[in-house]
Amino acid sequence: MSATERMVTILLAGTALIVFLFVSAPTELPDGKSEQASPEATVPVAKVLAILAAENDVARSLYTSQIVGAGKAVGLQFSEHWQDASIEAGPLPALFLRSTAAEVFAVTPDLGLFLGSEYPIAASNLFSDSQMQQFRKVAENGEAVMFPDAGANTFTAMYPDYASVQACVTCHNEHPDSPKNDSKLQDIMGATTWTYPRDRVSAAEALQLIRSLRNGFIQTYTRYVEKARGFSRAPQIGDKWPSGGDYCLPAPEEFAAEFERRAALATSTALLDLFEAKGEE
Ligand code: HEC
Predict the structure, then answer these.
(1) pLDDT (tens digit per residue) in 213-264
(2) CA distance 120 to 131
(3) Whose CA is nearest to atom 18 of ligand 1?
(4) Which residue, 9, 40, 174, 205, is the most exposed by fewest CB within 10 angstroms?
């Protein structure tokens, strides 16, 4: 198959998945959180969480570099107290994730997401005992871990969160609530932690989880844009990005489109692999 043919195949299959997504996704979760997997639950949740983690990386890096990084350069501010009425700022990346997790919980309450740490600024980000044991492995070799967490009755996946830029280290080391002040660049500062109460899901559930996470990113970004409209010096909101040098923010639909441009190919390829492979297990 030529590269073009392969691309066309991926696009066609992607379209089929999208049709499937809209036609067959349930509008609400089945009643009651039965721990009994349905007969359609053939997809290993570990693979779905890996897709979610990859989408989360795309959203986090888009938000961190193109909104926070580029935004600061043109005079926008970002704060842990961004939700306070008197603060004219947007969410720090960790709070972007926290708000996304709350939106996800509202739509798909079975899916848990948080940025955990051994030495957290916010006490609620401390790992549980069983998570801590697993995190030690993540911190040691830098690889993600996935495990059934008997204590919490969930399936859990953890992905390392690196101090990839100096700002991570400086802000955390100097923060008055931080119990650790000697972090260094490239240290593993914590882990993005996902939990789900069953180890297999149906195809429709898998797609619903992906949709819920995407919805979480966009709702969170929309809340920030709505707040920014009321700043005493309100940024221009439209199709421009602050990386162009203007005091502006892309509108939510622009942010969503850029996210999809960056995430869609990897996700549709992963979904194809997933649905092709599941019959063989
Ligand atoms: C300007 C300050 C600031 C910067 C820059 C920053 N953080 Fe944080 N980070 C925070 C605050 C504040 C929290 C607690 C947020 C909350 O309430 O959940 C946090 C939370 C976290 C957590 C969850 C554990 C905890 O400490 O509560 C991790 C892990 C983390 N940040 C990693 C990073 C990484 C990696 C970077 C760089 C890519 C980074 N942070 C950049 C301020 C910062």
Answers:
(1) 999 999 999 999 999 999 999 999 999 999 999 999 999 999 999 999 999 9
(2) 14
(3) 122
(4) 174
Q: Measured between alpha carbons, how far is residue 276 from residues 3, 46, 201 in Å?
A: 20, 16, 15
Give residues with Cβ within 8 angstroms of 215, minimum separation 6: 103, 104, 107
Q: For residue 171, which of 15, 163, 235 has the smallest C-alpha distance?
A: 163
d(CA 89, CA 228): 7
**Cα–Cα distance between 118 and 242 in angstroms, integer?**
34
Domain boundaries, the chain: 40-280
What's the 227 CA to ligand 1 centre distance in angstroms? 21
The answer for 142, left when phi > 0, alpha when psi is -120 to 50, beta otherwise, is left
